[in-house]
Amino acid sequence: RDDTGMGMSRLKRYIFRQLFWMGLLVLVSLTCVVWLIQSLRFVEMIVNRGLSVPAFIWFTALLLPSFISVILPIAMLIGVLFTYNRLMADSELVVMRASGLSHRRLGRPAILLALLATALGYALTIYILPASYHEFKETQFQIRNSYGSVLLEEGVFNTLMPGVTVYVRQRNADGELEGIIVHDARARDHTVTMMAQRGAMTEGPNGPRVLMLNGNRQEVDRATDKMSILYFDRYIFDMGALGTSEGERWREPRERYLNELFLPPEVAAETFNYNKLVMEGHSRLSSPLLILAAASIALACLLTGEFNRRGQLRRVMLASAAVIGMQALWLVIKSAGEKYLEVAPLLYLDAIVPIVIAALFLMLGNRLRRPRHAAEAA
């Protein structure tokens, strides 16, 4: 008995290792693909706006927790389907069943891995995701509002704030600007246009400002329709603060922790997005359950079926369609919940119901197949 028990334990560890490495490979591969695709939105900051490569990598890496939390159910599904389908194609599952392992015991390694992945999902959604996304939004806010990060694109009329447009022909490696045009139309009664051969962005007490050298300042008085020109060797144009202060920025739902979602610091009557905050909280608590549901569906579809030497393509497609439908329904419920909070419990049921049904199939799988075998024997 001890030898048999040790043999069973080795089989479970063998299955678990296969599942772990396949799931990890799928998770890393899909995460890299999604990260590269999403990073393309910010490549322009390096090419045209001079953002350093380390800053770019750190900036985009802050989005990884949000990607991983979405990819985990898919990685778990693919890992379970691939591993058990390969074991079945190699007749390894046939030998394991012949040795006395039931569906429930065969699926135990996958359930264990799914539970670990679910715990990781909760760590991501409850703490890591809001912390990283908040840092991402803070960094993005600083890039858009600090003078050093008001990164002017060459050869383009950049609208830095309403009424202020800046054009730069070229920016050197040391940050010096060449061919500067600044158009200030914030005052309705007169507009100002400044042109300079070269200059630089500097920091002022009220925000960013443009230091211009060897140029002229043209001002048009709307009352008299007269233009005055002032030639200068050195001129400083103060743009003031670009946008609101950091303390006034409204924090998005994904930036907030659970206590800030269910009990926002703002008064509920004054929070226009109260439903979005609450639904974000429910989605954080329910989405990790999709990982366990995906593994359960895959196990129920593969292990409870008849052995087929030609493969299990139909059951693989059935499991994939079921998981895709489950996740699509979860997204629909979340979207509807932003208008009607009463549907929030359906987020949990969308994941729990497949888990319960799959568990019943795994526990009763052998019993459900006995009448058919008995009929065939008769």
Task: Walk me through the structure.
With 378 residues, the protein is of the alpha+beta class. It has helices at residues 2-39, 43-47, 53-61, 64-89, 92-98, 103-106, 108-145, 258-262, 274-286, 289-303, 313-337, 345-377, and strands at residues 157-161, 164-171, 177-184, 190-204, 207-221, 226-238.
- What Rg, in angstroms, do the CA atoms define? 30 Å
* Nearest-integer average pLDDT: 81
Largest sheet geometry: 6 strands, antiparallel
Supply the helix-strand structural class: alpha+beta
The proportion of strand residues reads 15-25%
| Largest sheet: spatial strand order | 1-2-3-4-5-6
Approximate shape: elongated
Distance from N terminus to C terminus (CA atoms, Å) equals 35 Å
Task: Give the % helix.
Answer: 55-70%
Number of strands: 6
> Which stretches of 5+ consecutive residues score pLDDT under 50?
243-247, 370-378
| Quaternary class | single chain
Query: Helix tally?
Result: 12
Topology pattern, helix = H, strand = E: HHHHHHHEEEEEEHHHHH
Topology overview:
Elements: H1 2-39, H2 43-47, H3 53-61, H4 64-89, H5 92-98, H6 103-106, H7 108-145, E1 157-161, E2 164-171, E3 177-184, E4 190-204, E5 207-221, E6 226-238, H8 258-262, H9 274-286, H10 289-303, H11 313-337, H12 345-377
Helix pairs in contact: 1-4, 1-7, 4-7, 4-10, 4-11, 7-10, 9-12, 10-11, 10-12, 11-12
